[in-house]
Design goal:
It is globular, with a radius of gyration of 24 Å. The strands form three sheets. It has a three-stranded antiparallel beta sheet. Strands 5-7-6 form a three-stranded antiparallel beta sheet. It is mainly alpha-helical and about 325 residues long. It has 14 helices and eight strands.
């Protein structure tokens, strides 16, 4: 198991790893990488002669560009250059990938079903907020019954009725994302629909709302909110790579572990940046569980991009199956 930065150093000094041998280990790894790069350059330049330093630099620059543009197996067809754009400029690289900003055809998603319930309750008169600024309890209960169905709601609430908005997590998240998107706001103690929201609903229906919710979900809403594990922001930053994996392999049922494995294979250094959670969850366990829960279920499934299924009767099982839905190919297009 990998030593955490706050763990006792394995050298036996009695100090924390980060205050003892961590820097030495990182320096050693850096030297190893640099050694590999230098060996590659030596092999590349062997037997070649150049008329000037500029000519040599031009040769090395061309080689670097070709290397950065070459597909990498662990990136599933993406080059390092494409991956850089995907991670840092997901909405600003239309020549490589485009994310829907206009209405998509007949979108179906849990977040849209919930937003429809919320918008209907707000109506023209608004919906009075509680003293804590949340949606009223009775609305949360009734909307949960409508969303889950009477039978599922009875099973879900068998230990007690909903007492506050955060207890109905899906509606709570929908309301927050709706506010972040500027679709819903509070005015004089009431939730109201913004002017643009009303216009979109009147002219385009749910299809006009979806792109706004999608963008706010990936750009502004914190995926780690309401989660019991530590934050792993990179999971959210790499949402487009996850959609690339789902688009490429999601035509058939795959397990959540399949996507966890491919995510970790693409970004193995992430484990060194994550602390263990308690005595049971190693950094790898934290990343795997956070990835499956936050990316595959609470993002992709909630946004209607995939369907998930747990086999057998154990609904608490960490492993589940995933398959993409048609909406995924409408929302994101990859041009490579």
């Amino acid at each position: 198991m990998e030593t955490g930065r706050n763990d006792p150093c394995p050298c036996g000094s009695g100090l924390k790893y980060k205050k003892c041998c961590a820097d030495k280990q990182e320096a050693s790894e850096h030297q190893s990488v640099m050694g590999t790069v230098m060996d590659e350059l030596k092999g590349l330049l062997q037997g070649k002669s150049f008329g000037s330093l500029d000519e040599a630099n031009a040769f090395l620059s061309q080689h670097t560009q070709q290397r950065n543009q070459a597909p990498i197996d662990d990136f599933h067809g993406l080059s390092s250059e494409q991956m850089h754009r995907l991670l840092h400029f997901p909405f600003d690289t239309p020549q490589l990938f485009s994310i829907a900003s206009a209405p998509v055809s007949n979108p179906q998603a849990p977040i849209l079903s919930l937003f429809k319930l919320l918008a209907g309750a707000i109506g023209d008169d608004g919906l009075k907020a509680t003293a804590t600024g949340n949606l009223p309890r009775n609305f949360c209960r009734e909307s949960a019954k409508a969303y889950l169905g009477e039978e599922e709601y009875q099973r879900w609430s068998r230990y007690g009725e909903i007492k506050s908005e955060p207890e109905f997590r899906e509606m709570h998240v929908t309301r927050l994302v709706g506010e972040l998107a500027g679709l819903i706001t509070k005015y004089k103690g009431k939730f109201i629909l913004g002017k643009e929201c009303r216009k979109l609903l009147a002219e385009q229906g749910q299809a006009g709302i979806y792109p706004r919710l999608f963008r706010s979900f990936v750009r502004e809403y914190n995926w780690a909110y309401l989660g019991r594990l530590v934050e792993v922001p990179f999971i959210q930053q790499s949402f487009l790579f996850s959609l690339h994996l789902l688009g490429r392999y999601g035509g058939e049922w795959q397990t959540s572990i399949f996507y966890e494995d491919n995510f970790l294979r693409a970004f193995p250094n992430l484990l060194s940046q994550v602390q263990p959670f308690g005595s049971y969850y190693s950094p790898e366990k934290v990343v795997r569980l956070a990835y499956s829960t936050r990316c595959l279920e609470r993002f992709a499934q909630f946004m209607g991009l995939v369907e998930t299924e747990r086999t057998g009767t154990d609904r608490s099982s960490e492993e589940f199956r995933v398959r993409k839905l048609p909406l995924l190919d409408q929302v994101v297009q990859f041009h490579f």
